[in-house]
Each structure stands twice: as structure tokens, then as C-alpha cells.
Amino acid sequence: MITPGGFARLDLSIYELTTPQELSTVLCSSRAVVSGTLTPATILISPTTGKILRIHTSVLPRSSFPSGTQYHDYSPLVIMPGLVDAHVHLNEPGWRTEWEGFETGTKAAAFGGVTTVIDMPLNAIPPTTTVENLELKKQAAEGQCWVDVGFYGGVIPGNQDHLIPLVEAGVRGFKCFLIDSGVEEFPCVSAEDVSIAMKTLSKSPTTLMFHAEMLPPLSLSLGDSVLHSDPPLAPAGPLESYSTFLASRPPAFETYAIEEILSLAHVAPELQLHIVHLSAAEGIPLVRKARECGIKLTAETCFHYLTLAAEEIEDGDTRHKCCPPIREGTNREFLWDALKEGLVETVVSDHSPCTPDLKMLKDNGGDGDFFKAWGGISTVGLGLSILWTEGQKRDVSLVQCAEWTSYKTAKQVGLLGKKGALEVGWDADICVFDPEAEFTVTTNDMKFKNKVTPYENKTLKGKVVETWLRGNKIYSASEGFQKSGPSGALLLEKRRFPN
């Protein structure tokens, strides 16, 4: 039976279970996120395929299964689908591997219950703008990934002939910048470039994604790039003051970009469009209007926009620099409301790390200049705890958290049917979560390569206890990571149109 939430629920008697040879792994709990509800569940997993064989919506005792069955009762912890982080910069291959790489980035993901990440096309050298470059990325990733990894392609001026071959090679979507990306090998696109890309991809099962910031016709920040830059022409205050940085990237940057995207949507009306890391509340009405007009547009936001606030950022604390910027606490509440309403559908990390010196932190010999500092927040592996900590203050449930970070993100990248929910026939990607546990973030909890994050020393509620990838436990809070090493797969099957 398919429930209104789109999930399949199977209630089976123990006499309907499959043969003993197929029942070597059984996970159960009094609380599991199944069929869009929090329910008792017993999940049977095939040891050969790593897929879910059966789901029984009660906790079956160990005695219900043959001797030798691998049986785990996690009650009262919560069994959730593994997270699908649809926006991660892993930076490999190339010299920026010093900032992050497949081994460390995916290990950090596994620590946080993330079982699938989708790697962004820029910050690696070369960027993923051709099939040849994708092959180099695949070679770099092989044997290093602790979780499953998919890839986005990039749209840059003049690479339109490479887009369909990248679709055929298995990329999950395409990203472009409407403003300087901050790295010279990934230039931003014009309206003409976007129109060409839309026409090229109009009949393909893919998503065209936008870093939706643009310089309005008149701006005091002319020349300001996304990730690091010279100061604006007319700074509003000291360059180490966060308020100066925030003033240089007003909400108009985002709304102007979204309006530009919507003005071009008619070029390819069937092509799915997507706004990455929406931060400005002023963009929400534009998303609503687009939906009402039948434009195929979705939007994501990030853990940091839902939890951090501009007025709480101290001068010189450049760990908080990202683009678009973290805005005021009142703006944050509008993003939460948009999530609950479904106008913003997904929450991702946008994990964009760098080495500590590039953050210009005063504790590391820098001068705290927000304009010199690299822009990006390191979050991968901490996201579920961050979301749950703040979500509880706003009556958000773990079912909603799973929808925003697993089901909808898997849908965004065309992986439903394999990833994103606890469903019969889908991969047994599982996060075991203790919603009552608390921990203070230390460098030991940062499994990413460079231990720089604004969440350091913050106390979070909710902690990942175990992570399972395709029926195999890859991380345990008590035992660490699986001794056999990385077992993640590269997700390169060509994307299909949804049924």
C-alpha cells in the first residue's frame, strides 16, 4: 500500500518472512521514520544486495528469527533513513585537495548519518565541466569514499556541447553561478549562457541549479566576488565587522538573480530549475509566485542559515563567512516558515572548507578581514544534530527533518527508488539517532580535513549513534569506523525521468 506521503508500508506476519539465508540482518526500534510517520518498526535487510526486504510496523523479538540472524533492537533510539546531502564541495582532484578530499569529507558525512553526498563541480581542479574532467574526478574518488557519492556537472560560458554527454555519463544535475564564483576556472554565466544551457538541457532528465546572486544595476559592492575579494567601493564600516560584510551583499543580490532566472524559465518550461542555498527571506515570495505560475522551481537552504544569526557574529570571526551571507535572526524565522510551508524543500550543508589560514582568523595570524577570507561553512557530519537542536525550538519533528534532508534531497537529485527513505526494495541506508543526547562540538567531532567551523564549542542536542550503508554498519559512536575501510560507491547510473 502506498500512503499519502508516498511511502510504502508493509505489515507482514512473521510467517511471511523470507528464507533464513536472507535474514542475516534485522534492525528494529520502538521509533522509526517509516511511511512519513514515527512508528515501531522491524526492518529486514538482504545481506547480499544491501536492500530492504521487509518492514514490519512493530518490534519483533529476536526469537522470531532463526539463530544466527544479526539482530539489533535500538529502542528507544530512532531509526531514520540515511541523509542525502545534496550540496557538498569535496575539492578533489587538484591542489585544493589540501582543503578537503573524498576520504575525509565522506568520513565526516558517515559520522553524521549521511549516507549519500553529491559533489559540486567547482573547487576541484579541473572542474566537472566536461566528461573528461568527470573521469579525472572518478579516478580520484575510487576506493576513497566512506559513503555513496554522486556528482554534479557545471555550466560555464561555452561548454554547452559538453552538457548532454555529462547527462549520459551520470551527473545528477548542473550548477552555474550568476555572480563571480571566486575561482577563475569556473566563471559565471550571462543570461545568454543560461538560455543556451536551458535549451540544451530542455529534454533531459536533469536539474539546472543556480547560485542565485547577481549584482543589481547599481551597487556599492561592484567587483565583489563570492568567496574572497577586494573590499567594496564604499564599505559600510570596518572590514573585520560582520555588519560591513552583510551590508555588501544585501537581499537585492538574491532577488535580482531569482527574477532573472524566472524571466528565462519560458525557454525550457519542462526543465527543473533549482535555487541553491537560499538565504534571503525576500526571495521566498518570488519562489511562491513562480510555483503559482507553474514554473518548475525548487529551492534549498542550509543548516547555517537556519541556526546562525548575523547579530550574534563577533567582529573578526570569519568562520561565519559564506555567500550568500548569514542574515539576521528575523530573516532566519522566515526561512523556517518557508520550510514548513514547503516552499523551501530541502536542507543541505553546502560544506565548503578551506585551510585555516585562508579564513584570516586572528587566532591563526590573520587580521579578521571578512573580505579577504575564503567564504564557506564547514558543516558536513554535523547537520542533523544542528537541525534537530534548532528545530525542536520550533516544534519540528524528526519526520520533518528526514523529509528535508533525506527524501526531498534524494528526489532533487533523481535518486528516489534507491535513497531517501526506509522502503522495501530501496538501499538499506540507515541513521540510528539519539534525539536526547547532547554534545559540545570539539575538533574530535570534526571529521572533515580542516577543523574550522562556527559550530566549535556549541552544544548540540541529538547525536548519531550508528550509520549503515547498504546494509553494512560503517560507523558506530562506540566503535568508530568500520575496520575494512571505505565501501562507498560512485553513483553514475544515468538519471531517468520520474515515473
From TrEMBL:
The keyword Metal-binding applies. It is an enzyme of class 3 (hydrolase). Pfam families: Amidohydro_1. Keywords: Hydrolase, Metal-binding, Zinc. Its EC number is 3.5.2.5. One of its GO terms (biological process) is allantoin catabolic process. It catalyses: (S)-allantoin + H2O = allantoate + H(+). GO terms for molecular function: allantoinase activity; cobalt ion binding; zinc ion binding. InterPro entries: Allantoinase, Amidohydro-rel, DHOase/Allantoinase_Hydrolase, Dihydroorotase_CS, DNase_TatD-rel_CS, Metal-dep_hydrolase_composite, Metal_Hydrolase. Pathway: Nitrogen metabolism; (S)-allantoin degradation; allantoate from (S)-allantoin: step 1/1. The keyword Zinc applies. Residues 78-465 form the Amidohydrolase-related domain. GO terms for cellular component: cytoplasm. Its cofactor is Zn(2+). Transmembrane segments: none annotated. Homotetramer. Belongs to the metallo-dependent hydrolases superfamily. Allantoinase family. This is allantoinase. It comes from Morchella conica CCBAS932. The lineage of its organism: Eukaryota, Fungi, Dikarya, Ascomycota, Pezizomycotina.
